[in-house]
Protein 1
Amino acid sequence: MKSLKTFTIGGVHPEENKRSANAPIQQLSFPKQAIVPLGQNLGAPSKPIVKRGDEIKTGQLIAKGESFISANLHSPFTGKVLKIDDLLDSSGYRRPAVVIEVGDDVWEEGIDTSAALKREISDDKQSIIDKIKANGIVGLGGATFPTHVKLMVPDGKKAEFLIINGVECEPYLTSDHRLMLEKGEEMLIGIKILMKALSVDQAIVGIENNKADAIKHLTELAQKYEGISIQPLKVKYPQGGEKQLIKAAVNREVPSGKLPIEVGCVVTNVGTAFAVYEAVQKNKPLIERVVTVTGKAVRKPSNFMVRVGTPVQMLLDAAEGLPENTGKMINGGPMMGKAIMSAEVPVVKGTSGILLMKKEESRRKTPQTCIRCSKCTTVCPMGLEPFLLAKMSRLERYEESEKERIMDCIECGSCQFTCPSHLPLLDYLRLGKQRVGQLIRSRK
Amino acid sequence: MMNQFTISGSPHVHGEESVSKVMYTVVLALVPAVLVSSYFFGLDAVRVLLIAVLSCLFFEWAIQKYIIKGPITITDGSAVVAGLLLAFNVPANLPWWILVIGALVTIGIAKMSFGGLGKNPFNPALVGRVFMLISFPVQMTSWPVAKPLFADAVTDAVTGPTALGLLKEGIDAGKTVEQILSDPNMPAYLDRLTGNMSGSLGEMSAIALLLGGLFMIWRKVIDWQVPFSIIFTVFAFAGIFHLIDPTYYIDPTFHLFTGGLMLGAIYMATDMVSSPMTITGKWIYGIGIGLITIIIRLWGAYPEGISFAILIMNAFVPLINNSFKPRRFGVKAVSK
């Protein structure tokens, strides 16, 4: 095996708790009624093209991504559009969503639903990007950035490396891990497709060393795929941060405020590579994904293949129910995930896991005074001074926090995780980022 | 019906570190040195340690309760650490009332008047120590001779000069290093290492202090850069002068194992609150302390200089924090 690589500044080691690592992906059954939010991608929400009462098929386009940064949205189920209304989503706001009464599963024509592996890539560069765009593929690592936009390299820039994120550094989550084990070959074909779209001849799949089985499996498979190498990485959070992964894989630093393409890299998640395979080889839109259901008290930690729009409650039921003493429900992992208010909210393209925290784990401890121990500064993977930025937010001195590079913060939470005084550092940093963002926009 | 779940921002887990864990780790790291000083000074050491710790706790409690009228936080361990370090910086035979005054200065002036834990610009125990040294110079510099438990009394003298004191006196009287080292009061090499000599309570045994220091580095309570840069600077600077003129400048290891250097470098200068926040800053701060210490030791009026050196560099910490920022990711881009 290759020697382990990692990033150089900061980082923490939260308990891994990958309880569902050995649970194979199971197909989840369908709900009676699905809620499909229109804003499932980063950027502008999709514009609906169906109306109340329409009969729709699985995989049919129901909303279009019209702005530059937006994505198409397809129906995950066959059935009838009950309404288009503002409904509670995982962010806690009421936002527009298509509500579907689910019937028997009938796929739209032209979609290959067979499991047969299709290795040969017949599409050319433009046709690959068109298919990815048409099928509504977004980054499945959590940020849900439209993938076709990522593939359109700006003039004057050149992609040299495609970096595939199989790090899954968030504790508890195992959806990417299971996908690498179970859909490895499809994923590698997806990577080849992306390489073709970007005209790069090197792809590096970064995987944390706590997934030795996935590293071994993919390394074996990758021998048949020229240009794809598997890079084992040290277990250190936030190894899966885009900038940290690039640093580890090719030892380049994305300049402050710039995108990975600046250093010749394009980064996508392993789940996205699988979705790309399905979109290009099978013409299948992104309507389902792998979701981990886990937590210390969860009776049956699981990985499910879930159709978008399925209420979280169904996942909980399939994992043998909501544990009695659940105090917090998180969409995503414990370091960067978002707390959700209700199990009624639907799974969306960006849902990588549902994490249930016990009551005693859910409450923050009372903050104490800063003892200037500088641990936050030591662990910050961006080389920032969280204690200082937090203080500037508190004093509303946003011009100064802009100079101290608050916009470089990737919100990984390492500072707050490590703070002995239990200070809500990241809360203050988020506030600061939001205000500094307003300042920057107001100057334009 | 909506379930009542907690909603809060990420991260949702915590590394379980806490202020009191940090403080009690420091206390634990001081245990070897406490044992060594109790061995050499017996009940006197225990008396001084108890008075210092209890007075520090009392003053912090009294100030929080009656002056600030705020929450009482004496259980966080910071007052215990201040008390222990204060005791470590005085002779074992110091009258109790001086110690109590020292504790009042430590907690009342150096810590609480700035707003308590986390706010003090200067190391509280050192402020207390220097206050006592200037106000009660006689009592603060009459050092009891170490008398190991179970050992026969080796000398009738109750107090004796410290190794550094002997050196300073000798040099001032025009003696050579060789003559000074042959003085019968001068502790032998091994005694200097284990702490069998006159001096403040906690500065005796370099080995015990180093042991505690390694423990704190392992537990990530302190960074190694501060103690290392101080010790290295003192060693290098003393070494250069020793090479130039060995008749008047003693060999650099003497400086490492005598006086308060180890105590200061490992426990006092590393005080989180009053030391810099970045690694570069820690280097600058440590080198500064080392330089000032050795300048005072070689040419100053006092035989010992680390307390002053640390307090002087404490004053520079805000400036250091502003001038030496961490290496920002992606600012000086590294490319192949």
Protein 2
Amino acid sequence: MSAALRILWLQSGGCGGCSQSLLCHDTPLPAALAGAGLEFLWHPSLSPQGGGEALALLEDAARGAAAFDILCVEGALLRGPAGSGRFHILAGSGKPMTDWVCRLAARARWVLAVGSCTAYGGLSAATPGNPLEATGLQYEGNTPGGLLERDFRSGAGLPVINIAGCPVHPGWVMDTLAALALGELAANALDSLGRPRLYTDHLVHHGCPRNEFYEFKASAEKPSDLGCLMENLGCKGTQAHADCNTRPWNGVGSCLKGGYPCIACTEPEFEHPGHPFLETPKVAGIPIGLPTDMPKAWFVALAALSKSATPHRVRENARADHPRVLPAQKKTGLK
Amino acid sequence: MSRVVIGPFNRVEGDLEVSLELDDTQHVVAARVNSPLFRGFESLLLGRAPLDALAIVPRICGICSVAQSVAAASALADAMGIRPTPNGLRATHLILAAENLADHISHFYLFFMPDFAHPAYAGQPWFAATAARFAAIRGSASAQALPARAGLLKLMGFLAGKWPHSLGLQPGGTTRALGISEKLRVLAQLRECRAFLEQTLFGDTLEAVAALDSHARLTAWAADRNGDFPAFLTLSERLGLDRIGRAWDRFLSHGAYAGEAGPLFPAGLWQPGAAPTALDPAQISEDCHHAWLVDASGPLHPAQGQTRVDADKPDAYTWCKAPRYAGQAREVGALARQLVAGQPLARDLVERHGASVLARITARMLELARVLPAMEDWARALVPGEPYCQGGSLPDDGAGAGLIEAARGSLGHWLAFRQGRISRYQIIAPTTWNFSPRDASGQPGPLEKALEGLPAGPDAPPTIQHVVRSFDPCMVCTVH
């Protein structure tokens, strides 16, 4: 068996939630990594080395004296104030984290942006005027080119792999790492925003437990209602790329299962929806954001038709927090 | 005299740097704590719709995410003049408690215990067994602790959609109404957690642990008992961790888990030799004298607080403000909660030798033993069919405060809004209290005080590490 791929993990302008989410993986993380042929060279929250020992390890990696394979960065890169990087000096080093990331990215076979703030800037870049000068690793919002140039390629010839999500699902990270270890993550495994297609070939809408309410445009009106959250409560599940409703969170959950809208946290600039997160912007009563791939005229026509055909049960239950009208039980059995 | 800088300080949440001035015997004369990352969430929230805080504030912190949500929901409920429904309150308690207990498990197994596998202890008779069990990443304990933590967080799958970063916590309750099937599965998940705690962590029932009432009883209880907490108690006895890590011995709690018969853990202030006193939130202020922040106005109550960068300020050494209560530094956390609540073992430990590594760790263990049974009660009390969330309306102009307890201690959100937009948002997080810098009067923060006098030379055991990690710092919350 070949040697395990070594992962060097750094945290910067983020909340640490992607690491915390990763620790919820079905298989305990050390065993999951080892089983897939991976190991941590260093992770700030998990590893035994701190202080000078950790700095020596990072310095050796940065100057090419200690080989590693995968650089995972978690958190936006803070270039401010005034380009100095002083909003995040790596503790003990006196040097901005942005310097460390640039040096290490140049040595890595693969570079992973873990979480939407690392990929695109995310909430860390959302302060009006972006005084932090926060950016994603290879994107600034929707625009290619971030801390690293748009034509940056890691040792293995790939751009930064953007595991977008706020936070990431543990499976998205583990599957991406495992695919790298298997040698099965080539350029065509990434979508147009650099995200692994293993989870972005789907829409959040796929497998949504509110599907029947969506079909009949039976909408929730307030938090905790069972109905579809698209018409009134800001849900973007029909447009957001991720498999959240077919790959359960924390064993059984998802945002939609939890009773609140998808805010499209895997998409660049989700942090600036242009409207309150929990409200759907509308023109003449029709939501502005319609399902991906759906011709607008057809959507409006079908919505009107399905609303006129909404079963009493679905209409009533959409505005309640538990089913008030139950599915009828036919005496003649299923046909 | 010499100076030592420790950073990056690993196995804490977020980035931490500790600077130590040592005397000729290599003991700490003065410590300065630097939180080297600034993200500015308080400015980020300005101009947003008030309810947007529910989507934004959990993303302050990936380990205290729910606590941030609960504080925001509580501040908004205050501004709206509403309270969660009874089911909503029970569900909120379950969600917050699941996070707090999961954090206690993470802290003990992933962050704190691996220090006893440090090579400096290699000559100790207990070293081999301890390292095999608790070494970072490769120790045998993580294969049991991580599934237990993940199992507890499965409650989020049922009650809050996901963790971290749920939008399920609202001013009027929670967005996910459980039916009987989910209620039963939550209870089953809690039984699994109880089994882990009783069989692996304690080697005894939760009720027996919660009833421990003195240092002497604790020591006798631990003798020859199989369990990871008893194993720590043996190490603590040998290394004298009951006498290491004292800070100011002044404690504060916002109070946790409100109920009809009063909160499970009351709000208040406590110090050794005195009865608890009531908390007056008007006495809280933040001092920015040693932070890279504008402090022209002097210390401010958070309802008047401001956060403006002054990156070139002389004498500043951190991005962290210095919260003070009536001008005094205060320690917050599980230990403070148990002391204010009058838990006799916590009181005995602190009355004897002050707050210590042993006292802080033991308080978290007491919380695991005391809160899980409360969670079982809240889950049993959920009434399928009754509402989990009530509506409310926000005025155009208003203000509110949400004072809650996160795993690491007291968390406060103060918000104001005008014409439907947030005009001020100020946050004091637990580690802002515990890892605060000096204030204008030169008074060190609790960790800075706790490190004074400790050995820190090149050949010293990892005593500094034990004390820093005994606070379970969360650096991403600290500056936010």
